[in-house]
Write a structure and sequence with these properties.
The protein contains 14 helices and 2 strands; from the N terminus they run H-H-H-H-H-H-H-H-H-H-H-E-E-H-H-H. It has 350 residues and is an all-alpha fold. Strands 1-2 form a two-stranded antiparallel ribbon. A hairpin with a 4-residue loop joins strand 1 (285-287) and strand 2 (292-294). It binds Phenylacetyl coenzyme A. Residues 68-69, 72-73, 76-77, 80, 107, 138, 140-141, 156, 160-161, 164, 167, 228-232, 234, 242-244, 247, 253, 257, 307 line the site of Phenylacetyl coenzyme A. Phenylacetyl coenzyme A is lined by residues 68-69, 72-73, 76-77, 80, 107, 138, 140-141, 156, 160-161, 164, 167, 228-232, 234, 242-244, 247, 253, 257, 307.
Length: 350
């Protein structure tokens, strides 16, 4: 099974449903925004749906919010390589292995685009990594769960990448230019990631009984953590204490966590039906009045436990990251020495 031939026309994910094209069609009309002082110009740019660029004045809290979110996003990409990296040496065929290696490399690349976007806000990649290693910056809760079988690689692609795209397509229209532009490229690549996960599960679900059970078990284990990825409830009374209201006013977030979670459920339930897999939620039911799927209570205690460092794999993930960083020190030193030599040469030739 290749491509989208499990269904004739339905897009598999949000990136394929036009959101990225819409962001790419954004027209730069910054020159037409002419206002008095710095704050007024910033507000006028936002009101005209124009991008804020690194050279622009911006409120300190806007800058801090972006650094927090983009750093967390970048860290998620590179830590997110670990759960599936666990299966590169055990992929069931050469084709599967090549695909999985390419996917992990894409994720390293996404980390780089994102660290670069954050650097335009005046923080260095080294500083952000130090904060990650010291446990002072976060990464997504989802990557603290183990990958026990090959089907987990499929579930990560289908559900985790699917949730990531649902959250990231609106970020292509984020008010901060470098982040928005990085997201366009990331979403295009993520779209393939989700497709490869779906295809793994499609094949397992049509394989032997043992393979089908493996696929079902993976869907059971990854469903709820994928819903948690969107972040805590942030609408109605729950909005208090979250960053959503301000981030939406600043055009950083375009939708609430709850809205994106609902869109994800609505997109994913028909896909599960197509795969022939059950989702582990007895409350899952189509609501004609709302025009959405109703779903059960999320275990927010589990979410906060994982976010605070007490999930199944938090210690292992951070330890592995710290080790990789210290073992890579010689590469960074060599790259810096090479760059210094190049610039010395360029200076003496000038
Ligand atoms: N995990 O007020 P909000 C991927 C924290 S990339 C941990 O709603 P915000 C690709 C939040 O930081 C996946 N912490 O916060 C891939 C805040 O704490 P703080 C990553 C979480 O920022 C696939 C507190 O809870 N994607 O998967 C989580 O407005 C496969 C209150 O929350 C992004 O980072 C969580 N899930 O909204 C790679 C997308 N959720 O900072 C490999 C960009 C919330 O005050 C394999 N980020 N928290 O201490 C965003 O869109 C936002 O930051 C949200 C959270 C929506 C994640």
């Amino acid at each position: 099974m290749y491509g989208n031939d499990h269904s004739s026309d339905a897009p598999l994910n949000a990136a394929e449903a036009g959101g990225v094209d819409e962001a790419m069609a954004h027209v730069d009309r910054r020159d037409s925004v002419d206002s008095g002082d710095e704050q007024e110009r910033f507000d006028a740019l936002l009101a005209a749906d124009q991008r804020i660029e690194p050279r622009d004045w911006m409120p300190d809290d806007y800058r801090k919010t972006l650094v927090r979110q983009i750093a967390q996003h970048a860290h998620s990409e590179i830590i997110g390589m670990q759960p599936e990296g666990n299966w590169i040496t055990r992929a069931p065929s050469l084709r599967r292995k090549a695909i999985l290696m390419a996917k992990s490399q894409d994720e390293a690349g996404h980390g780089l685009y994102l660290y670069s976007a954050a650097e335009t806000l005046g923080t260095s990649r080294g500083e952000m990594l130090d904060l990650l290693h010291a446990g002072k910056q976060k990464y997504s809760s989802i990557f603290n769960y183990p990958t026990l079988t090959w089907a987990d690689v499929g579930a990560i692609g289908w559900l985790v990448d699917g949730a990531a795209i649902m959250n990231q397509v609106p970020l292509c229209r984020c008010s901060y230019g470098p982040y928005a532009r990085a997201m366009i490229r990331v979403c295009k690549e993520e779209s393939f990631h989700q497709r490869q996960g779906f295809e793994i599960l499609w094949n397992l679900a049509r394989g032997t009984d043992a393979q089908r059970e493996m696929a079902q078990d993976a869907a059971n284990r990854w469903w709820w953590p994928s819903l948690m990825m969107f972040g805590p409830p942030d609408t109605g009374e729950a909005a208090q204490g979250t960053h959503t209201e301000l981030s939406m006013a600043w055009g950083i977030k375009r939708f609430s966590n709850d809205d994106l979670r609902q869109k994800f459920v609505d997109m994913t339930v028909p896909q599960a039906q197509k795969l022939g897999l059950d989702l582990p939620d007895d409350d899952l039911a189509w609501d004609d009045e709302r025009g959405h799927w109703n779903f059960g209570e999320i275990d927010w205690d589990e979410f906060w436990q994982v976010v605070k460092g007490d999930g199944p794999c938090n210690a292992q993930r951070l330890e592995h990251r710290r080790t990789a960083h210290s073992e890579g020190a010689w590469v960074r030193e060599a790259a810096n020495a090479y760059a210094a030599k190049q610039s010395q040469r360029a200076e003496s030739a000038a």
